[in-house]
Amino acid sequence: xxxxxxxxxxxWNRVDKSYRKFTVEDGLGGNYxxxxxxxxxxxxxxxxxYVISRYDGTSWKVFGQDDFPPxxxxxxxxxxxxxxxxxxxxxxxxxxVYQYDGLTWSKPESLPRIGHTNDIFVDADNVKWFxxxxxxxxxxxxxxxxxxxxxxxxPFEQSDSRGTNHSAALCCASDGNGVTWIGTTHGLAGxxxxxxxxxxxxxxxxxxxxxxxxxxxIVTGPSGDIWLLVANEIFSFNGTSLINHSKNTIIAGIxxxxxxxxxxxxxxxxxxxGATNGLIAYDGSGTTYYALD
Length: 293
Prior knowledge:
By secondary structure, the protein is mainly beta. It has strands spanning 2-5, 8-12, 19-22, 33-38, 44-48, 52-55, 60-63, 77-82, 88-92, 96-100, 105-106, 117-122, 128-132, 135-139, 144-148, 169-174, 180-184, 187-191, 196-199, 215-220, 226-230, 233-237, 242-244, 257-262, 268-272, 278-282, 287-291. The chain has a 4-stranded antiparallel sheet with strand order 4-5-6-7, with no helix packed on it. The protein has a 4-stranded antiparallel sheet with strand order 8-9-10-11, with no helix packed on it.
């Protein structure tokens, strides 16, 4: 298991619970790692605040602002993903997305409208989904589209008591039935290309005073179900039933949870901080703790 942390890149051995931490002293571009993805060739790609690092298992390569086309606004990275062809997609906080083809970084002119990128997801058909504050843009290499919170049918355009719209799309993933699920600040929305399905009160979690229900992460399990990180609670959804695994189970009360992924055999791994600091592996019936010093 590879973990992007605020102190560097961590490689965990799931058998003996040992780990190896990589920092700037090893060649990593920045210790504060925000996003991670694994390329088809096995290389690890990491987004830190101001640099992107690639690790092939032996050596590091670091990309900074000088490796990109001239950028007028401050250079700060918000998301990264690698597609099935090995192209790397990077979202910047200046509302732009760049592609790395193995030689250079460039800004594809055919991309749809892109705002501040909170997440980038590549689906089974190699379609790139760019999750932004005001909706989700998609790009299949030729055609593009934009699902706006305001005018496309994407739900959860809500206002608080001050009349301010705080809705934002935060994350994205696809299930085994071809439905794209979008996590927002106000619930979960599933889109099959024609119609929307939404969940809000079904989570049974009391929203914040502004009505926020943060869907912070969505990952797809090996059976095609989806797992969701909602605030600090863990849910699964199989297309019919929404299950809260943080209620009356062994993982109840585990927080703060910063990250989540699902392994090939179905084990859910949670990146946690605070006194617990490390990884929690949850297989549906029990947990295994991996301590990070």
